[in-house]
Amino acid sequence: MTAPRRNERSRRAILAAALELLSETSYPDLTIEAIAARAGVGKQTIYRWWRSKGMVILEALVDSAGEPGDMALPDTGDLRADLRTVLRATVAEFADPRLSATTRAITIETLADDDLAEQVRDQLLRPQLSAVRERLRAGRRAGQVHESVDLDLAVELLFGPIYHRWLLRNGPLTEAYADDLVDLAMAAMAPGRSRLEAAP
Amino acid sequence: MTAPRRNERSRRAILAAALELLSETSYPDLTIEAIAARAGVGKQTIYRWWRSKGMVILEALVDSAGEPGDMALPDTGDLRADLRTVLRATVAEFADPRLSATTRAITIETLADDDLAEQVRDQLLRPQLSAVRERLRAGRRAGQVHESVDLDLAVELLFGPIYHRWLLRNGPLTEAYADDLVDLAMAAMAPGRSRLEAAP
Amino acid sequence: MTAPRRNERSRRAILAAALELLSETSYPDLTIEAIAARAGVGKQTIYRWWRSKGMVILEALVDSAGEPGDMALPDTGDLRADLRTVLRATVAEFADPRLSATTRAITIETLADDDLAEQVRDQLLRPQLSAVRERLRAGRRAGQVHESVDLDLAVELLFGPIYHRWLLRNGPLTEAYADDLVDLAMAAMAPGRSRLEAAP
Amino acid sequence: MTAPRRNERSRRAILAAALELLSETSYPDLTIEAIAARAGVGKQTIYRWWRSKGMVILEALVDSAGEPGDMALPDTGDLRADLRTVLRATVAEFADPRLSATTRAITIETLADDDLAEQVRDQLLRPQLSAVRERLRAGRRAGQVHESVDLDLAVELLFGPIYHRWLLRNGPLTEAYADDLVDLAMAAMAPGRSRLEAAP
DNA sequence: ACTTAATCGAGACGGTACGTCTTGTCTTGAG
DNA sequence: CTCAAGACAAGACGTACCGTCTCGATTAAGT
C-alpha cells in the first residue's frame, strides 16, 4: 500500500485560501473556483481530496485548532471562576466577526450535510464540551456540584444559551452575559438539597 | 397613493409551492425556478415581491403561524407542568424531520443574511420566547421563581440547550430530555435562598 | 359603425418616440417598452394599434414621407443629369448614418416579416421606383433610351448596386460612385443599335 | 503557446444544430439556448467561442462553402453563357426558401453588427464577387468587354439588382430574369464605341 | 539514474440556476 | 371605452459555478 503522493504545499495553500476568502466574503459567495484560483491550484486538486467546501473549512479549522491537549480547562479550585474564564472566551469568540465567520460557515453546511455534521461534532465540538464536562466532574468530586446532576446536560446549559443567542441574534454577547449565565447555571447545579424538592 | 396591485392568488401559490418543495428536497436544492414552475408563476413575480428565497420561506412560516394570540402558554398554576408541555412540544418539533426542515432552511439563510435574521427574530422567535417569559413572570408572582432571576436569561436556559443539541446533533431530542431540562432549569430559578450564597 | 376613438396625440407621441430612440440605439435594442415609456403611453396603446415595432417604424416613415406627389422626378430634358440628381440623393441618404438608421431598421424587420415586407414595398419602395421608371419612359419617348429596354429592370440596374453596396458595406457611397453608376446604366440603355448584336 | 483545446466534435454539433434550426424557424426565433440544447452542448461552450448567433451562422456558412478554389467560374470562352450560368445559380439560390434562409439570417445580423458585416464581406462575399470580376477581366482581354469599364462596378451591376429584388421582394427571381439581367449588363459593358459618346 | 504512474495547474466541457429583461396579455382606476 | 400604469406568465438572455473530463508537465517512488 503506497502512501498517497499528495502535495502538502497545495493542501496548505488551499486551506489558507479558503480561510482568507471566508474573511472577505460571505460563505455562500465562497466558491471552489475562487479557492482554487486564490490557491493557484487546479479545481481537480480540491475535488480529489475533499467532498465539499464544508469539508475544506472543517479541515482548516481542525488544522488550526492545534493539539487536542490544549483544550483542557484550568482547574484553580474555584469552579465558578474557571467557568467564567471559559464562557467569557467563548462569548468573545462568537462576538468577534472575524472568528465567528468560519463557525458560521461550518454551521451552515452542517445543517444540510449529515456526514459533515458528524465530523464537526466529533472533531471540533465534543473535545471542547468534554473538557468542560471533566472540569464539572472534578467540581462534583470537590462537592461543588450536586450528585444527581447529568453533567452532559449541565454542559449544554452553559453553552446552549450562547449558541442560541448568537444564532438568533437575540441579544448582545458580553462578558456580563457570560458571568450571569455561569451564575444561573451554577445555581442549577448547586448541592445542598434535593433539586426536585426545591420546587413545589 | 395607490396600493400595489398584487395578485393574492399568485402569492399563495408561491408560498405553498415553496413549503411543498422544501419537504421534498434539501434547502440548498430548493431553487427559485422550481418554486415558480411549481406555483405556475413567472420568476419575476417572485423577484418582484421577495428579496431571496429565505424571505419567501419566512413569509410562508409567518403566514402559517396564525394569530399571535395562539401563542400564549397555558397557565395551570403548575409551572413545572406547563414548561414541560412547552418544551416537549418544542423538542417534538425539532425531532420531526418534516417540521424541522423549514426551521433548518430559515436558519441556514439567517446565518448569511442579517436583514432576514432580524425579521425572523422579530416575527417568529421573539413572540414565542415572550410567551414563555410571561408564563415565568406569572410564576414569579406566584412565588415559584426566585425574585432576582433575569427572565430573558431563564428563557434562554430553557431553549438554548435544545437549539444547541439540534443544531449540532449532539444527542437525541426526546421527552425525557425535555423533562430533565425543565427540572434543571427550574432548580436554577428556584426561590428559597440566595442563589449566589448557595455556591461556595 | 363608430370610428375608433383613437387618441391622435398618443399616436404622434409614439411615432416620434420611435424615431428618436432609433437614432440613439441600434434597432434590436429598440424595445416597445422603451417607446411606450418615452412617449408617456401605456404599452397596450401600442399593441392595440400596431402588430409589431416594424409596423410602428413603417408608419413613422410613411407619415414623414409626405405627399406622394413630392416624389415626381424633375424632367430637365437631360436624362443623364436628372438620374445623377436622383442617385446622388439616394447615395447621400444611405451614406448618412442618421438617415439610414430607419432604413436599416425597416429592412431588418422586413427580412422576417412577409406582411410588413409587402407594405413597405407598396407604400415606400414602389412609389419611389415608379417615379424613376416614369422618367425613363419619358426618356424613351425622347429617344434617349432603347426601345426594347425593360424599364423595371433598368430601374433595378440603377438602384440595385447601391442597395448591394450599402447592405454589404462593399465600398464607399460617394457622388462619384453615383455618377459612374448612371453612366454605366445609361450605356446599357443606350439606343442606336441592337443591344444583342452588340455582343459577340 | 498552447493551442486552445477546443472540442471539434462540439463545434461541428453546434454549427449543424444552428443550420438545422434555421430551416425550422425564423431567424429571430432561433435562440442560443435552442442551439445548445439541440447540439447537446452547454450554452457556455457557444458563448466561449462565438460572440453572437450571427457569428455561429457565419462560421457554419464558411465551413460549408468549402475550398476557395471551388469558386472559380467556368471560362468556356462565351462570356454571356458563363455569366448566365452564374446568375441563374445565384437567382436559384435566392429563390429557394431553404437556401435563402441562412442568407436572410446573416443579412439581418449584418445590418446591426459592423464587425460581423466586415467578416461576412471578407469571407463570403468578396471571394464570390472576385471570381466573377476575374471572369470579366478575362473577357476584357478577349475583347468582349469595353476597355474603360470599372470591373467592380460591373460586378455590382450584375448582382445588385438580384439582391435588390430579393431583399425588397420586388418581383420574381426566375431564370428569365437572370438572362435579361445578363443581357442588359453586357450591353453596358459592350466594346465597340465610346460609352460616353453613345449618350446624347 | 530510469521508469512509470499518480498528481499537479489549467481550463474546456455538459449542465443548472441565477437575476434581469422583454414580450404580449390582463387588470385596475381615472377621466 | 380609452387611456397610463404596471402586474402577470413565459421564457431567452448572458454569467457564474458546479463537478467531470482531458491535456501535458512535474514529481516522487520503486526499480
TrEMBL record, chains A, B, C, D:
Residues 8-68 form the HTH tetR-type domain. InterPro entries: Homeodomain-like_sf, HTH-type_TetR-like_transc_reg, HTH_TetR, Tet_transcr_reg_TetR-rel_C_sf, TetR_C. PROSITE patterns: HTH_TETR_2 (PS50977). Gene3D superfamilies: Homeodomain-like (1.10.10.60), Tetracycline Repressor, domain 2 (1.10.357.10). GO terms for molecular function: DNA-binding transcription factor activity; transcription cis-regulatory region binding. Keywords: DNA-binding, Transcription, Transcription regulation. Residues 31-50 bind DNA. This is Transcriptional regulator, TetR family. It comes from Actinoplanes regularis.
